[in-house]
Amino acid sequence: MAQQGGPIRLAPLAPATERTPETGRPANPDPRAQPGGVVVEGLGTLSGDALGLLGEESGGLGDDMWQGSHRSDALRLLRNLPETYPYREGYALARRVLSSAARPPSGGREGSGILAPRISKLAAIGAGEDALRLATAAGGVTVPEHLAESAVRARFSRGALDAGCAQLRGYDGGYASAFWQQALIVCQVAQGDPGQAALGLDLMREQGIAVDPLFADAALQASGGNGIEISLPGDGEASELTTPDLMTLALWLAARADIPDAWIDVLDPGLLPALLADAEMDPDLRLKAAHRALRAGVISGPDAVAVYRELDVDDAAVAAGLVSSQDVSEHRLLAYLYLAAAGRSDAIGRLVALWEAWTRARTSGGFDVIALTTTPLLEAVPVTPDFGWLSGAATEVALMAGDDERALDWYRLVLRQAPIVPDLARAAAALWPPMRAIGRTAPGSFDLTANTGATSPISGRPLLATPPRGPVPWSASRLERWIDFAGAEPEAGDPAAVLAVLAALGDNVDDSQWRLVPLGGAGPATMPDAAVIAGLSRASQAGRKAETVLYALYALGQSGDRPHASVIDAVVRALSAVGVNDAAQALAREAIVAEAFAAEPL
Question: What are the residue boundaries of the structural domains of the chain, listed by start?
Fold first, then answer.
């Protein structure tokens, strides 16, 4: 039959589904409102490309963010967008540009929509919930077929295998591609029918479809009905492991395989939420996955705390673990430090526990993890001179967690007590560069009479708009004091990198400060492609906002774990040029904090 009529479809046929007329949308929908809190900016869109989760009033990049961009450039940038970034703010910026509602770019042809790659990338960076909201909103009631693959990927990336397999069964577009055939194998294993896995692999082999060797090995093992044993090559070091893709991880989870600890270090951060969704996984493995996801920016501090709360430990076990820390893993120790502080209801007891947590994490590793989880516990602590002894550490913790408002409150207390407390005088000097990055401007409006032709009653000159004085004003002397401090403290980071970032923000870093910085102190660095830097420059000069943001993400994603200062300089300047000042400031703050308060590895 195959010789006479072509290949036979061996995959099971999808069951018939009941569909609503047309797309299932209401007859007269609100032009902006969509299911799931999704908004649309602009009319006449192509395939729902204007859909978004963020409008201008909720943090989006604006209805005109694609103005001046051509669809072919947008597609090229979106399809190959990096999925890992060295800073948490990189993930936040990626979510923002991918989730923004806006008029789509001009040009293009039928089938060249930008919604599908946006959804796919949201899933890849760990924002699976956002991806699903967009995919569902595009169809009104059901996910359209052209977005079905992205929706299944989003569900698998969240560890929701049952929901992903239900989506697969309702798909009518055929299972010819490698993705759909791999997804069938995952669902067959998840539903207790692993015998079909080998048949599916044979079918792909006959069609010349290549898959990840890790996936093929796992599928063959699963087809034998004895589960999957994940081996470690060589001595099991993470440097020797290849990164599993989404479908391989989904197959491991479907077979309830025991995932060795070393694989957590090589998984793309966007895949880590799938591990966190499995409540039956080894608790220490989940803790390690949670901490890596937290550091990457894929999950928040409260998300990690939710994993802590699921540990089956009482107060006695927490206290014993803190006393005999050598008997618990470093990840469990961080969880215990948080639980000990959160369990204290009295203010003084909680502050002492927080101080211990910060101090121990600073010396043993994981200070950034502790900062991200414990910052909310500072909400109940009044910023008063009575707690001045805590102010330097509290400022550093809030900075590390990106809580700018809280950091500014505690820093003001540091400055008030620095003249009489030597430790706080040192903290004031050490903290000035990152505090300057976040304290450049103060809330408030410009003079309403400026630029209106009005003149000063005293000088007779026209009134010009001037920004309000920020809480941390520019001070060349404070910067020079910090440079001296950094020279005496090897752990204070690279002064040249800090100066470059401050200059990129617009501060008047001049020759007198640069002369204090030694030359030739930088080590080797990974640099982005020349085409990326050139594209970043072209897009920002032309005012193409979305393109600029995407090129900035390429520059960050291609720069390794510690981007060179020249990369941060280019990114900050470009984002500022197109008006994305808040993201530029946030990236600058994180870059300076990474230099000044480098987190110890776990």
Answer: 33-172, 174-229, 498-596
207: tokens are 């069609």
Region label for 520, one of left (φ > 0), alpha (ψ between -120 and 50) or beta (otherwise): left
CB 74 within 8 A of CB 547: yes
How is residue 21 written in tokens? 């007329």
Helix (H) or strand (E) holding 240: none
Residue 55: closest CA among 41, 72, 69: 41
**Quick one: tokens of 544?**
């193409």
Per-residue pLDDT averaged across 354-374, rounded? 92
Q: What is the pLDDT of residue 24?
A: 38
Residue 97 CB partners (closer than 8 Å, separation 6+)? 61, 65, 546, 549, 550, 553
Of residues 251 and 226, more confidently modeled: 251
| φ, ψ dihedrals at 78, nearest 5° | -70, -45
| 391 vs 158: CA distance, rounded Å | 39
pLDDT tens readout for residues 474-492: 999 999 999 988 888 766 6
CB 135 within 8 A of CB 53: no
| Cβ atoms of residues 197 and 182 within 8 Å | no
Of the candidates 315, 460, 296, the one whose C-alpha atom is nearest the C-alpha of residue 372 is 296
Query: Which amino acid is it at 589?
Result: R
For residue 371, the one-letter residue type is A
pLDDT(3) > 50: no
What is the residue whose two structure tokens read 């204070």?
Answer: 492
C-alpha dihedral, 542 to 546 to 551 to 553, nearest 10°:
150
> Cα 550 from chain centroid?
14
Share of the chain above pLDDT 70, in %: 83
CA 359 – CA 16 distance, rounded (Å): 61
Q: Measuring CA to CA, which residue among 376, 368, 479, 405 is closest to residue 87?
A: 368
Evaluated on CA atoms 472, 576, 59, 394, the torsion sign reads: negative
Pull the structure tokens for residue 333: 């120790």
Length of the chain equals 602
Report the DSSP beta bridge partners of residue 100: 54
pTM of the model: 0.85
Instruction: Give yes or no for a contact between 126 and 272, defined as CB atoms under 8 angstroms apart.
Output: yes
Phi, psi of 51 (to 5 degrees): -60, 145
Taking only the tens place, the pLDDT of each residue in 319-357 is: 999 998 888 999 999 999 999 999 988 878 888 999 999
- What was the pLDDT predicted at 485? 86
The C-alpha atoms of residue 418 and residue 429 are separated, in whole angstroms, by: 9
Which pLDDT belongs to residue 468? 56
